[in-house]
UniProtKB/TrEMBL annotation:
This is PROTEASOME ADAPTER AND SCAFFOLD PROTEIN ECM29. One of its GO terms (cellular component) is proteasome complex. InterPro entries: Ecm29_N (IPR024372). Keywords: Proteasome, Repeat. One of its GO terms (molecular function) is molecular adaptor activity. It comes from Salix koriyanagi. One of its GO terms (biological process) is proteasome assembly.
Length: 255
C-alpha cells in the first residue's frame, strides 16, 4: 500500500503530444486575454512555455515560438505589463536547465528587469554570476550597471548596501570589480566607434552593448559604481586601479 501511495504522488510527465495540446490551449487563452489581465496570465504562462523548450519535439518548440511571438507583440510597447522575473530567474538558474531554455530565458529576464522595482534586485543578479556563460554574464552586468546608474549615482541605501556586501563569492566579486574598472575606463567616442584607451574593442562592447553610452548616462553609472564598490568593502587589490582611473577621469570633479 505504501508503494501505491508513493507512486500515485509522483509527478506526471506529459508526453510531447500532451504538452503541445496544453500549449495550444494556452495560446488560445493568451489571444483572448485582455491587457488588464495579461500580467497575471504571463506569470504562469511564460515560465511554463519556456520550460517546454527542453523537449526535442519540433512541434512543441514551434508552438512555443508561436506563443512567444504573440507575447512579444503584446508586451513590447506596454512597459506597464510586468513579467515574472523571479520565476524566470529560478528557471534560468535551475541545475537541469538546458542551453536553449537559458538562451530564451535571458531575453525575458532582461525585459522583466526593465519593469521591476530594480534597486533591490541588482545584487541578486551578481551572486553566482561567474558561473554563467560569458555572453550572459555581459548582459547581466550591463543590466546591473544600468540599475546602479539610475539608483545609486548620488548615494546607496543601507538596506541595498547590505545586499551588495552579501555577494561573497570571490570569483563573483572579482568579475564585478573587473567590469567596474572597464566601465571607469570607458569614454564616449567622438566618432561613435572604436574603443576607449586601455580597453579592447571587446571590452568596450562588453560595457556598452549595442549602443555607445552617452555622457550623462555614463557619468551616472560611474558615480553609482564608486558608491557600490565602496559599499561592498572589496579588498584593496581590485579597488586601487579603479580609484586611480577615477582620479584621472574627465568627470572627476563630479565624484
Amino acid at each position: 500500500m505504501a508503494e501505491s501511495s508513493s507512486s500515485s504522488s509522483s509527478p506526471v510527465v506529459k508526453s510531447d503530444a500532451e504538452t503541445e495540446e496544453l500549449l495550444d490551449r494556452m495560446l488560445t487563452r493568451l489571444a483572448l486575454c485582455d491587457d488588464s489581465k495579461l500580467e497575471t496570465l504571463l506569470s504562469k504562462l511564460l515560465p511554463l512555455t519556456l520550460s517546454s523548450l527542453s523537449t526535442n519535439s519540433t512541434a512543441v518548440r514551434n508552438k512555443v515560438l508561436e506563443i512567444l511571438s504573440h507575447v512579444n507583440k503584446r508586451v513590447k510597447y506596454q512597459h506597464e505589463i510586468g513579467l515574472p522575473f523571479q520565476e524566470l530567474w529560478k528557471l534560468y538558474t535551475a541545475a537541469n536547465a538546458t542551453a536553449i531554455v537559458k538562451n530564451f530565458c535571458i531575453m525575458y529576464i532582461e525585459m522583466a528587469f526593465e519593469r521591476l522595482n530594480i534597486k533591490n534586485m541588482a545584487p541578486v543578479l551578481i551572486a553566482n554570476i561567474s558561473k554563467l556563460p560569458l555572453q550572459h554574464q555581459e548582459i547581466i552586468l550591463r543590466i546591473v550597471a544600468k540599475v546602479i546608474g539610475e539608483c545609486h549615482a548620488s548615494q546607496i541605501d543601507d538596506e541595498v548596501a547590505v545586499k551588495y556586501r552579501s555577494v561573497n563569492g570571490s570569483q563573483d566579486r572579482e568579475l564585478f570589480a573587473e567590469f567596474c574598472l572597464h566601465l571607469m575606463l570607458y569614454k564616449q567616442s567622438s566618432q561613435g566607434g572604436g574603443c576607449s584607451p586601455g580597453l579592447s574593442i571587446a571590452q568596450s562592447n562588453r560595457v556598452a552593448g549595442k549602443n555607445p553610452l552617452k555622457n550623462e548616462e555614463l557619468l551616472m553609472r560611474k558615480l553609482g559604481v564608486l558608491n557600490v564598490v565602496d559599499a561592498m568593502e572589496l579588498s584593496p587589490e581590485p579597488v586601487y586601479p579603479l580609484y586611480l582611473v577615477a582620479s584621472a577621469d574627465r568627470y572627476r570633479g563630479s565624484y
